[in-house]
Specification:
This protein is an all-alpha fold. α1 packs antiparallel against α2 and α3 runs antiparallel to α4. The chain starts with 30 loop residues before the first helix and ends with a helix.
């Protein structure tokens, strides 16, 4: 995180340099933890760049966007899985053109 404080030369590289591996125990699996970590990191950078008005302004804006985009009222993952399962069942029923099947899938 401190590398940008040294004003390095930044170049575009079109090749893949790294890949992201998702694991159930990773931070990305828990949005609340990810939000807290992101806020902590941006806040730390704000302290480091408090003398640089331009960078400080960018970090303030980033902090505002993180706080609004990663809210603490995210539904549990099970809710999304249940909704996806029900939507898939409804689509399959639609493909068979069976309206009664669609209603059975949507209404428990």
């Amino acid at each position: 995180m401190q590398i940008l404080a040294t004003d390095p030369l930044i170049l575009y590289v079109p090749d893949m340099l790294a890949t992201y591996r998702y694991r159930p125990d990773s931070m990305a699996a828990n949005l609340r933890v990810m939000r807290r970590g992101f806020i902590k990191a941006v806040s730390k950078q704000k302290r480091a760049f408090r003398e640089n008005d331009e960078m400080y302004g960018v970090l303030c804006e980033k902090l505002r966007s993180v706080k609004s985009e990663y809210r603490d009222f995210i539904l549990p993952r099970q809710s999304y899985r249940y909704a996806r399962k029900k939507a898939s069942q409804a689509v399959r029923a639609l493909m068979r053109r069976d309206l009664r099947g669609v209603l059975r899938c949507l209404v428990p």
